Protein 1
Amino acid sequence: MDMGIAGRTALVCAASKGLGRGCAEALAAEGVNLVIVARTKETLDATAAEIRAKYGVDVKALACDITTPEGHAAALAACPAPDILVNNAGGPPPGDFRDFTRDDWIKALDANMLTPIELIKLTIDGMIDRGFGRIVNITSSSVKAPIDVLGLSNGARSGLTGFVAGVARRIAATGVTINNLLPGTFDTDRIADTLAAQAKAQNISLEEARARRAKALPAGRFGTPDEFGRACAFLCSVHAGYITGQNWLIDGGAYPGTY
């Protein structure tokens, strides 16, 4: 299927690896030019070079902290008129809510709620003026089914979800859509770190920890960044103009509810 977005420009956050890179690659495969953002310059530059060589699109790499005002300004200077915005940031650490400080909460809110909102604010009017825009926020399956040890993530990402629910409908007639992608267990560095900690705590091998986690999923496996990216590319396509304000759960069937 031709997604109809060749020649468009996308700003993709936290795109040097993992789910952000999956989204960047899927968009590049559709002929979308990219500005990709992450903190680590070496990894980001390598990713940009690989995507550029593989897909033949223009890829600009910007190493910055996208959660800061300076990062916001730098991203918009590098990509002043994006047609597509993919918001993404690493999740806050797990823990007991009793141990979270005010600073912990502010950091979580800055990364997983306030930064996406600010980037939406900075880009949405241009999209509306041009009559086309796609905004996709990578959040978490915890928005659908809260995870007890991820209180910071549950709170911050749920705040973003509520914000999107209102704004997406307010601008639905303009040609601009806003949707959220809710990943479950994907084969990324984040799950690798979690599994390593679990393996150590349970005195089992990393391979056994991976096998146990995969077996617990109805799909019997972890998701891949590639398939996550393709879902993102579809939401960014011309075919998804009637989909807005939605939370797409991509978790291999892990969520047990009917709705």
Protein 2
Amino acid sequence: MHVTPLVWWVTIGVTLAILIFDVFVIGRRPHEPSRREVGIALSVYIGLAVAFGIGIWTISGHQYGTEFFAGWLTEYSLSVDNLFIFLIIMTKFGVPRAYQQTALMVGIVLALIMRGIFIAVGAAAINNFSWVFYLFGLFLIYTAVKLAKEGAEDEDAYEEPGFVKWVGKHLPATTEWQGTKVLAKIDGKTLITPMFIVILALGMTDLLFALDSIPAIFGLTQEPFLVLTANIFALMGLRQLYFLIGDLLERLIYLSYGLSVLLGFIGVKLILHAMHENELPFVNGGEHIEWAPDIPTLVSLGAIIGILAITTVASLIGSARMSAAERDAATGPRREPHHH
């Protein structure tokens, strides 16, 4: 896929413009957004993603169009999963509803920056070492198994990343909320506020989740431009989604198992691809393994849509038969971040 520097800069510029609009226009005053406000914004973001995918399909061909849609859907479903942890963080730190969208906005901007760095490193590694696909594949299969086992853990299982705990203990802080400020001057001293800690927790958590989602999307496309844009579109509507589907999240009781199957499928696809491209001297004498099939992206897209559809329908049917307490016990955090 040939992407000119101009297209790269236009993409980054448009992303920044949308983020600036989101921060300074939509989020100019701390408030809990209405369902109408959230619904309109979410429709626009999803519409933009679909239009972008159709544009890629038309200009660069169906192969890249399919890769974008497969990557975007995977990243979006993993991002929805992140919302469970975001909800727990907001509850744990007692963030007032009016300040939650500001915290989410800054957390998402930080996530975009960190994922951009991860994507650049991942793309460089893949270009130079084809055996990285073995590592990515094994890591995703390990994550899938771990996720299936953890399926319904108690919400209290979430632990703050170690760095967040360290900051909370060692930097001068105030426990009083100072609106949406991250720093406050009290009695001549500059202190960090609870908002600073919350934003740090959200950013760190999303960085840790990127350890799963970046290898997953590289299993669907090796085009850095598509990897980046799929991530951008997946994160764009995340804040609105948080406020829109709070109730629905409680009903997605089998999401962890669906995501486990999804990550496992992509993990197997990556290992088959690594065998197909094999250069490791101790595997098949460094020769390509001819019998290892390369799963076409169209098949992957069909599998992703099928897994997500079955998971959603099964969850909604299953949760409808449960009491509120049973649903609460069945959900728990979908993925516990890896602590490194």
Protein 3
Amino acid sequence: MIESALAHGADALEATSDSPRLDAELLLAHVLDCDRQQLRTQTSIALSPQKISDFDALIARRALGEPVAYLMGSWDFWTLTLRVTPAVMVPRPETELLVELALSSLRSKHAPSVLDLGTGSGAVGLAIASERGDATIDLTDASAAALQIAELNRAQLGFSHVHLHLGSWLRAVPGRQYDVMVSNPPYLGAQDRHLETPELGFEPRGALVSGPSGLEDLAHIAHTAPTHLKPMGALYLEHGFEQGAAVRQLLSDAGFSAVTTHRDLAGLERVTSGIKAD
């Protein structure tokens, strides 16, 4: 029955997951091709041996630390359900702050231009695109495999106002200028303790690690962004919760004005922004 399968799955994940019951529900709903609400209302329904076998296999992989998103092949971000694979990072809830800030800064602009640097699955840029059909939105990534996933998501959503570009940071869009630029770049140092987390071992290291300090890519973007921003254009950078002061300094050194760090729902410094000074 569904309830006994869920209980068994949650027990198996107790030692390795922060949310064993939720993980079990998500994986069983995936196997049964239903939603979690249906699981709760049909707890006494018997499962076929094949479904039980499929569920047990996913639970075993999850117990080793593999992210639920990779096991399901998709993940929710903003109001979208996006395809994800080990070629891209799993979109995090805290990254929705980038979307909120970008949309706020675009509120008074008609037909704005937006750039999402290092887009991965396309999560941030596509979320902005879902709210601003009048915008022209460019997504870039240095990984062809990642950009392929972003293109699958773009095509599934039918966003013709979104365009993809392969290349490293701003070299992917030479000569272009934007009203708003957003990025969630790699910001972990090579020896960062968080890299020991089992789940991170399954995610692409190139999307996580940025040199010895973790600030290398943030510094590169901060210093190259001004030439790609329109007058009064805004840059929003996601970073580690302990990097706020360092990123504020990077933006100030690059000539940005109104440099501000924004906190996520947990109260942690998560995104730092600046306005191109003219």
Protein 4
Amino acid sequence: MKKEKIKPEESKRKKHFLFLLPFAFCLLAFLTGCVQYDLGVTFNSTNRGEIVQSIKLGEQLTAFSSDTALEWLNSIERRAGQLRGTTRRISDRELTVTIPFNNGGELDRKFNAFFNPIDRKTDISATTTAVDFPEFKSAFSLKQNNFFLVVKNRLSYDLDLRSLEVISPNANIVVNPGSLLQLEFRLNTPWGATSVTNAENGISPETLQDGHQLVWMLQPGQINHLEAVFWLPSPLGIGAIAIALFVAGGIYLKSRMSPPVAIGNRPTASSVKLG
């Protein structure tokens, strides 16, 4: 009876799985709910807002691999500083990052620059051993259309978190990615926003704060797509209306306050009496 030959690809895959199996059990045992990551974009106006991130590492993670966790937080601080952001260390396990932006184009540029550094290798400090962090595909887009008095904004974000999965040769997930990472995306706008969920891999948000905040619970191990439409006042349009009203008001007040000019016949020289 002939033995069935094992394909090189399948053999390599099984070896890779056997190599990851102990690590997977370590994750299951020690890293349940190891990272809480809240990511938010807040629009205070059309020309002012900020990207806010809150990262909290579980005690199990810092105890199991404190050097790796510390280096990851340090890399986040370095990237925020390159984008003129500020960071605040709440503890050795918790960090808050704030990156301001002045318009939609700057938001687009800074968001993608933070989550897609040009060279990931240089993001690791030279004083520590390089660590292979999971790579996530992140694509953020904000399209704006000016309608004179208001600006229509269409925000779209795609985040591929499939790299968090540890998969067996039979395509069964060994580690549930949801137990490793809890990730939220928040959108805060002055007039509220409307979610668009008809796209592929689209997820639905929760609405909070009387409709001014949308919260998406992103799913680790999957491709996540979120999209929303919201309106903001246009400073240029409102400014133009204000200037036009100011000029019109000035002309009206001037016409009301100026005395009427008498129009009549000028006296002739013969009509002047001589003394």
